[in-house]
Amino acid sequence: MDKTEQGKLQAICKRTYNLVSKDWNSAERQYCAPTIADEIPPTDPLWQTEMFLPIVTLAAVDSLDEAMRYANDVDYGLTAGFYSSDPGEIEWFLNNIEASSTYIVTAQV
Predict the structure, then answer these.
(1) How far apart are CA 101 and CA 79, in angstroms?
(2) pTM summary value
(3) CA-to-CA distance for 3 and 5, rounded, in angstroms?
(4) Burial 52-70 (b: 16+ CB within 10 A, else e)
(5) Exposure string (b/e) for 11-35, b if CB count within 10 Å is 16 or more?
(6) How many Cα neighbours within 13 Å face the side chain of 23?
(7) Cβ contact 87:107 at 8 Å
(8) How far is the C-alpha of 58 from the C-alpha of 36, rounded, in Å?
(9) pLDDT, block means (10 residues), the chain with 109 residues
(10) Where are the domains of the chain?
């Protein structure tokens, strides 16, 4: 990882949004603590950057279609997950998501 990439990761991890964890250790081993980021506009670089870090972005949406637009509005999508027990919603997700690896989480009864 070059210094430019390191700087971008530091900036992302140090954001002042509603982050559950803001820990960043800039010692030889760099570490970004597991982080939940909410109330961040979908146009923010945090949504658009594939980081391979334990960071998840959350946003309220008005519809599944709006959520899918956000999910697919990236240069590349490696993984996408969907939480539902509704067979119709699950089929819709699998037919519309643009990601290399997908997973479905359903309620276990």
Answers:
(1) 5
(2) 0.66
(3) 5
(4) ebebebeeeeeeeeebbee
(5) ebbebeeebeeeebeeeeeeebeeb
(6) 11
(7) no
(8) 7
(9) 60 51 50 74 77 79 92 84 92 95 84
(10) 1-59, 61-109
